[in-house]
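User: Can you help me understand a structure? I only have the sequence.
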Amino acid sequence: MTNCKIRITLPGYENLIANEVYKKILPDNKAELLLLSRYTDLNDPALHEYIKKCTKGIKIPGTINQLEASLVGLPENIKERLLLDDLWQVVETKDRNYIDIMRGFLPSNTLDCSAKKNFDFYAGLLSNYTAIDPDSTNQFNASLLLKNSVLPDKREMDILIKHKTFRSETFNIVGHTKFPEDMQTLIDVVYGALKSPVHISGLKDLTDRVTLSLAVMHLQHAFDIINQERFDSQASSGYGALPEFPPKGPQTLH
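Assistant: Let's start by predicting it. Here is the structure, written out as tokens:
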């Protein structure tokens, strides 16, 4: 959810959706599209508790998410194993807060539609166009780790950009192998707009979907451990490996 009481403006950009989506018209019928958001990476124990809670209370029929779909129909002994603490490896013990910058270029006429759109529409539009035109330059996602609810020290960021750093604890770029030539300019604009924790709180919060994605990854790792345990147990008994669990492939829920 976006806190629209705070108005975040980016010099040179038009605001398509308050505090979420921005555009800049460029020459040659091109447009720059910029999406800003924030999210929290929950610590590992919190993620594991989330998975356990879903394991205990699957709601069907009805709409279920990807994590719940992975838990539907599990045998009771597998569910019981998922509830045991020794299954879960704890690496990260603190929540980590980030802002995310999604930026890319596309034909400006693709933004001319007057129909009401949302954040996901523009994110999908940008992702689909990037897939169609993978040679497009300067299309990426960048995440910045917040420290004490504010952006990283600007001097630190300037050094990372100067050395064209793709990956660090503070700053990560994914989605393109070429370091964006105008990254310094873009970071200057973002820092100028997100001056305080109040401004950052005005960004769209994607924590729920990030949590779901991370939980699915952790669950798959748990399944790998359970499969190995089943393999070791059966191998020691001379019966061989059991079928892979859970089965891969799409499943229809009724």
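Now, to help you interpret it: The chain has eight helices and seven strands. The radius of gyration is 22 Å. Let me know which part you'd like to focus on.
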